[in-house]
Amino acid sequence: MTDALGLRERKKLRTRATLTAAALRLFEEQGYEQTTVAEIAAAADVSTRTFFSYFDGKEDVVFREQGRGLERAAELVRANAPSTSLVDNLLAVVEDKLSSATDSAAELFEFGPAVLRLVESVPALQAASLRRIDRAQAALVDVLVECYPDRDQVDIAVAVGMVFGALRAASVISLKRGDDLDTALAAVRRAVDAAVHGLRGTFGG
């Protein structure tokens, strides 16, 4: 049973990767707006129904990774909150996110540069990216406010913005210059450490 489940999961991962690769290739060749879901499915040799079993639509292909892990982050924050400072809790969330990135490194490094080029070149995707980032950070702020009621909401929002802004800035630069995984993770950790140093100086732990 375990082997069968493993085979099914590997097949699903391959299909998702094939769809992602086909979509990004078509987006670059003929434009994001001009590409249809039917064309993506045909290029991946699957049905449109299969496409929608993996993605909600074209935008989800581009931003699938961006929204992942929010529930996990909320669980981690709540579990750590009773005995962990706000800043250290944020660090734990970041480290958990980086560990997840390590697990899916092949896919991140295969598709990350193409996704970045696409988002930077399509205004609608730039706006969608900012909306998704804002929603994710606002949701994390809400959980932290719940867990640290003695902290001002503005301080918490600033802390989240600083830490995840540093993470994103370092990630984008690493993708653009073609860093390998170890170099990229080291750059992200340096950026986050710098943000945390500033937070400790301003807000304490």
TrEMBL record:
<dbReference type="GO" id="GO:0000976">
    <property type="term" value="F:transcription cis-regulatory region binding"/>
</dbReference>
<feature type="domain" description="HTH tetR-type">
    <location>
        <begin position="13"/>
        <end position="73"/>
    </location>
</feature>
<dbReference type="InterPro" id="IPR050109">
    <property type="entry name" value="HTH-type_TetR-like_transc_reg"/>
</dbReference>
<keyword id="KW-0805">Transcription regulation</keyword>
<dbReference type="Pfam" id="PF00440">
    <property type="entry name" value="TetR_N"/>
</dbReference>
<keyword id="KW-0804">Transcription</keyword>
<protein>
    <submittedName>
        <fullName>TetR family transcriptional regulator</fullName>
    </submittedName>
</protein>
<dbReference type="InterPro" id="IPR009057">
    <property type="entry name" value="Homeodomain-like_sf"/>
</dbReference>
<dbReference type="InterPro" id="IPR001647">
    <property type="entry name" value="HTH_TetR"/>
</dbReference>
<feature type="DNA-binding region" description="H-T-H motif">
    <location>
        <begin position="36"/>
        <end position="55"/>
    </location>
</feature>
<dbReference type="InterPro" id="IPR023772">
    <property type="entry name" value="DNA-bd_HTH_TetR-type_CS"/>
</dbReference>
<dbReference type="GO" id="GO:0003700">
    <property type="term" value="F:DNA-binding transcription factor activity"/>
</dbReference>
<keyword id="KW-0238">DNA-binding</keyword>
